[in-house]
Amino acid sequence: xxxxxxxxxxxxxxxxxxxxxxxxxxxxxxxxxxxxxxxxxxxxxxxxxxxxxxxxxxxxxxxxxxxxxxxxxxxxxxxxxxxxxxxxxxxxxxxxxxxxxxxxxxxxxxxxxxxxxxxxxxxxxxxxxxxxxxxxxxxxxxxxxxxxxxxxxxxxxxxxxxxxxxxxxxxxxxxxxxxxxxxxxxxxxxxxxxxxxxxxxxxxxxxxxxxxxxxxxxxxxxxxxxxxxxxxxxxxxxxxxxxxxxxxxxxxxxxxxxxxxxxxxxxxxxxxxxxxxxxxxxxxxxxxxxxxxxxxxxxxxxxxxxxxxxxxxxxxxxxxxxxxxxxxxxxxxxxxxxxxxxxxxxxxxxxxxxxxxxxxxxxxxxxxxxxxxxxxxxxxxxxxxxxxxxxxxxxxxxxxxxxxxxxxxxxxxxxxxxxxxxxxxxxxxxxxxxxxxxxxxxxxxxxxxxxxxxxxxxxxxxxxxxxxxxxxxxxxxxxxxxxxx
Amino acid sequence: xxxxxxxxxxxxxxxxxxxxxxxxxxxxxxxxxxxxxxxxxxxxxxxxxxxxxxxxxxxxxxxxxxxxxxxxxxxxxxxxxxxxxxxxxxxxxxxxxxxxxxxxxxxxxxxxxxxxxxxxxxxxxxxxxxxxxxxxxxxxxxxxxxxxxxxxxxxxxxxxxxxxxxxxxxxxxxxxxxxxxxxxxxxxxxxxxxxxxxxxxxxxxxxxxxxxxxxxxxxxxxxxxxxxxxxxxxxxxxxxxxxxxxxxxxxxxxxxxxxxxxxxxxxxxxxxxxxxxxxxxxxxxxxxxxxxxxxxxxxxxxxxxxxxxxxxxxxxxxxxxxxxxxxxxxxxxxxxxxxxxxxxxxxxxxxxxxxxxxxxxxxxxxxxxxxxxxxxxxxxxxxxxxxxxxxxxxxxxxxxxxxxxxxxxxxxxxxxxxxxxxxxxxxxxxxxxxxxx
Lengths: 485, 437
Prior knowledge:
Chain A has about 475 residues and is α+β, with helices and mostly antiparallel strands. Chain A has 18 helices and 17 strands. Chain B is an all-alpha fold and about 425 residues long.
């Protein structure tokens, strides 16, 4: 019989078909693998992620703020013993990603930066979960807790900076969230009143309002204006538009013949509008620029560039006035002006530090898995805001503010400097703020900025600022030497 | 055509003596190492070694019996079969440990059935003599499945018959019966349909597929396939049946037109089925573009492809991947699980083993060219093995729509293993037939 040809053809067809299967398998296993594995619906990604032993976050004296503990199923659970540090540490969630320091130092915490052969063998061949590095933050837990307590009944923010190192010692944003229960409460938190995910210190864009008085006084000093001339009608309010009627932050005694200095203390708007008019628009813009008033400062990496969460619209919408007048600019109420609490703290820091603002700094040291702490030095560079002589004069003015009995009573026993005021945040609402600093024994400083939303009481902000500055003064900062592991 | 052409299928593999034993040892070493690796990960448990013990009993016992029964058998068939079946056991032990114990029992039973198949003298002739009885039996099985069929999992196509708590899939047995029936029928008709070499001139003689002798079984087969498809929603078996039939008819008659017509018929059936049956429509839709429905209807195939991606070249290693994300991975998607843990290399080895089995089967067909029944039987059995493997591999790899057949020897399933082993028994018998000096 002669079926050889048919059988041979059949064989060739089968062999070619098997070969096609191998080509297809090679395509999915080798060529197209990368794209397949990166798909968001690949459950292996979550599994690998869940097994990573993420590094610890510790405060400047070594207290653990975030750690990953193994569950019985081999996955890791992120735990935050001090949820009040959440505005700084952020959160880590398999479902919702990361925020805050967890985002900024994600690569180190995950151990992604280690690409040695040993790591490859451990992880790729032996399937050991990745081990991340531990991170020591600049945060001081006692100060953070103190500031958190002080702000507890308010909606607002506060930030504490060491000068000149730029170390962020405390960073509070209220309302806050508990990163331990993030997954369960996500939907509630997203729609919660006041938006707890909105980090007011970093993302808040507030109208500067009376904050601008400090730069304006600096401009007056620079152009040799007299600060002590008596001014008429100094305590009269300024009508910016139908909705915005700016008055003195603190009510001055009725019979006082006010000078520019008094206006600075009481936060009265009228003399500053007159000052701005006599200085002219270019000078006002220039001094605002040199105090970085129109450039919101934030912390690199802390706020996700492409946030999954709604990073919310600014809590304080600039008032809807199409064009800004010089009066609006002078009073920090122009639609173009927006400032973060971190900016405000930098203004106080610059005044304390010969006119030079530090660069905010968040990390003190890194400890690779199984290694020793390696310190991460702060940037030496500072940003010049104003000349040293002017800064010294401003510093004196701010110190006398604190001693006047207007901002806080009784007078503080340690030498504090500060300035408080209000800003109109649109729709008839007012926010109160305070900036200030204290000089420590080693002639370094600690600067603070406090913002309280919908509170027309700058004294409240000043009291909180005073409390935290005294606490910082009395409690020597730990962590100047990196702790032993 | 010219019959003096060298036959590639005949000379491709030279097999030295003792090949069988050495190959079995190699297979045992591979399976043992994998079992050991699993034991190291899970902790030692004597019961866990039961599948491996069952495999050793089958391998050693099978070899001893075969030495005695069929000294002139093909020496590659048995070791390759045991290698794949052992790998299948390892895979099931890793994926669904309780199922592995049952599968090991089925392996013992199936190896026994295989030895029985190749030990009965005159079995092949008996099968030919009683082919109509077999056909009636087959149709009876089909009808009873349609009437009494159940699904052990309680949902899905009802392709199983339950006898005293043991589930059996009659379509598995149908495959073998079909091949036996067709080979014997076509070998009887062989002289009259093999017109290529006989220059006869009447129209009906030059176009013998138009005669009722050929047209009859074509329509019968087509009818069976349609019944399987309509009543059982068993796409894979329907396609498999029809392909075997076309291949056998082509090899018997030598008329290429049959292949073309068969291809057209499958195409036409696909178009009609696409419009009529939602199951076919679903399979074709998610084959053409699974990505938009990756977490819905196409979940299984997308997860399967991810398993291939996760496996890469060398695989994650046994017990180290996550093939469990693929639903019913141990039966339909055993190939994908294998890809994740043994990688592309594992896929190459399994594909090569199946291809060699098919090659040896076709080689056996060429050895029996003077006996059309044996030759066609060998072609039919090899085709069954090849087409079934290709259907599921192609489906899992998104080369063709998923048809839901099992991967021979590797997938979990007692009926499937039993059928594949009986198939090997028949091939072993054929390979030894007429080779006694």
